[in-house]
Structure formats: C-alpha cells, structure tokens
Amino acid sequence: MTTRPTLLGYVRADALSCAEELAAATDALVAYATTEGFTLGTVYTERDSAQSAAFNALLDEAKRTDVRAVVVPTLQHVGAVGSPGATQHLEFHQAQTWAAGPR
User: Could you report the per-residue pLDDT of 43-81, keeping only the tens digit for each?
Assistant: First the structure.
C-alpha cells in the first residue's frame, strides 16, 4: 500500500461571508486533496487576520514536518495574510501553494 503525501489546508474566515461558505471552502480543500492524490492534514482557519495565528501555526507545522504543500480555496486566502508576501513565506519553508478554486 502506498502512503499518500499530506497536504495542509489554510482558510481565512474573513475572506468568506458566512459559516456555509467556510464549510464549502473546507469541503473544496478535501475534494482537491483527494483528486490530486493527497491526504488532507490539518486545515488552519484564520479567524483574525491581524494576528495571523493560524498562518503562523501552519508555518510551524511546515517547518517541523515533511509536509511541503498547502492548499487554499483561492489565492486571495494567502494574498492578505500578515503581509503581501505570505506565499513567499511558504516558499521559504519549501512549501508549494495551490488553489482549490479559481485563481
């Protein structure tokens, strides 16, 4: 049996308008991971983008594990985290960023 690589998820709640959109975004991450041959690991949900606590936790997990890929509902979810360079932070930690939905 082949082990599927793990993919982390990241969602910014403030980029969505309601709880139903948050649930749909998480479902999209699950579907993307399954379709692309990954196991979806932790999905980090940012509740307060000014603090970036979930994003920093994601970076910590990427640093301490061999997970090297992150999926977001759209690239908007990493475009405004902490700084415009959120994707560069992920790349620095050798993690690729993919969008499950429209770019």
Answer: 999 988 778 899 889 888 988 887 878 888 887 777 654
| Cβ–Cβ < 8 Å for 90, 62 | yes
Residue 60 and residue 67: Cα distance in Å, rounded?
Answer: 11
Which strands make up the sheet holding 69-72, listed edge to edge?
39-46, 6-12, 69-72, 96-99
For residue 6, pLDDT over 80 is answered with: yes
Write the CA distances from 31 to 25, 37, 82, 84, integer angstroms: 10, 10, 27, 27
**What is the sign of the dihedral through the CA atoms of 10, 76, 5 and 22?**
positive
Instruction: Give the Cα separation of 11 and 16 in Å (integer).
Output: 9
pLDDT at 64: 87
**Structure tokens, 30:** 């699950």
Q: Hey, how many other C-beta atoms are within 10 angstroms of the C-beta on 98? A: 16
